[in-house]
Amino acid sequence: MSIYSAMNSGVSGLAAQSAKFSAISDNIANSGTVGYKRTNVQFATLVTNNSSAGTYSAGGVEASLRTEVSRGGIVTRSTVATDLAISGNGFFVVGTNIDSNNIQGTTHLLTRGGSFRPDANGNLMNTGGYYLQGWPLDNTGQVIGGGDPSRTSFEGLQTVSLGSLTGTAQATTEITFAANLPASKTVEAPGQPFSTSIDYYSPLGFTSKLELEWVPNPNPAPPPPAVATPSNMWTLNVKDGNTTIQTVQIEFNDGIGANVPAGRIKSMDTGTNGVIPLTLNSGQEIQLNLGENGAGLTQWGDQYAPGTINKDGAGYAPLDRVEIGSDGVLTAIYRNGLRQAAYKLPVANVTNPDGLIRADGNAFQVSRASGDFYLWDAGAGSAGTIDGGALEASNVDIAEELTSIIETQRAYSSNAKIIQTADEMMDEITRLMR
User: Fold this and answer.
1) Could you say which residues of the chain have pLDDT below 70?
2) 3-state SS record for 172-216
3) Comparing C-alpha atoms, which of 263, 326, 321, 269 is closest to residue 295?
4) How many CB atoms lie within 10 A of CB 249?
5) What residue ranges in 16-71 does DSSP mark as E strands?
6) Which DSSP symbol is given to 355?
């Protein structure tokens, strides 16, 4: 009977509008949730097969729910370096467990919710309780394991942990030294050498000293009445502790005949282009750089004047902060000024983001409707770039949702009126039979 089908149609309308109202409620409740994706409700008709000429059997309506994953939210700045947002397409990869090396022991999900904070052990976890995943990098900035990591599986990803970035030190590999040696000392009788101590760092971050000892080599005094002339010759003894580890003979140009300026190095019996290789007692290797072609070392006048001393390396220092670049590389910055790339965050992309399956905690699972995922480098291919110190807001428009509430309320009341009217018509039929 058409009245019964009308009543059923009204019931299906109530159910559909209830589903829409629930979705609106969820959207409004999550309007402040970072990275939340609005749920949109569309309706589809239901058609029965027993309609004929002169009659109509109402089929009703059903609700079709779609999550607007591909619709981005506004990116806002944050003062926290581990707050992350993606400008463009893609998702962060997160894991349900900390031990994400064990692929069987964790579930990997995708999310745009990038409010990550270190937990008690330093593992970066977002507000949904999921752990950020990335490829660990070695000291050279390459993914550990060598080669390009897998792009179509989660193999090789690890939980990003700041707890493992406790501190670091760096051995000294080069010392640059500049000074002026007194030319007058290579005329006089042998005297006291000139010395300068230079600190350097061991691979374990300890500080030790090298000593540069400059010994003038004057010409022998000629018989009178001849006047002594400068030899322009010096011996450099490099000492590590009480041990001389390198001896270098250096001759300076007196301005006559050589193809170098006066007061500059004419020749050295050890080293190339002013660089002297040193091997310390510990086996550590350091390059002593006297400037390009020895240009940092001069011989003028009668004063020893040490100049600029520069060296690389640093002593041990704890982690100060981290930075995450647009390329997804997380860089640890230590209090000694050293910077070390520690993790590379992939950006996952799927063919149809709106086909992803929703999970608790504002995350998504890959499904057949979404297509397979691919792990891009941030900013490469179809993937967006990563913004460190930023968050993507919810894509919910409150004004739009409040308007939908009014529309849904009216539609719900109208469907209820259908059922009420159909019930009254059934009463009329019942009274006719009495």
Assistant:
1) 1, 49-54, 99-105, 221-223, 226-227, 293-294, 434
2) CCEEEEEEEECHHHHCCCCCCCEEEEEEEECCCCCEEEEEEEEEE
3) 263
4) 13
5) 39-45, 61-67
6) G
- The SS3 assignment for 319 reads strand
Cα separation, 160 vs 342, in Å, equals 9
Run of H or E residues at 422: helix 398-432
What would the two tokens of residue 242 be?
């009480």
b/e per residue 182-216 (b: at least 16 CB within 10 A): bbebbbeeeeebbeeebebbbeebeebebebebbb
Q: What is the pTM of this model?
A: 0.76
Q: How far is CA 269 from CA 188, 210, 266, in A?
A: 23, 20, 10
* Inter-residue long-range contacts of 101-110, CB under 8 Å, 24+ positions, other chains counted: 101/158, 103/154, 103/155, 108/133, 108/154, 108/157, 109/359, 109/363, 109/364, 109/365, 110/348, 110/350, 110/356, 110/363, 110/364, 110/365, 110/366, 110/373
Each residue's pLDDT tens digit, 257-291:
778 888 888 889 988 888 999 999 999 999 999 98
Bridge partner list, 275: 272, 289
What is the per-residue pLDDT across 177-189, written as a single tens digit (0 to 9) for each? 999 999 888 887 7
3-state class (DSSP) for residue 316? strand
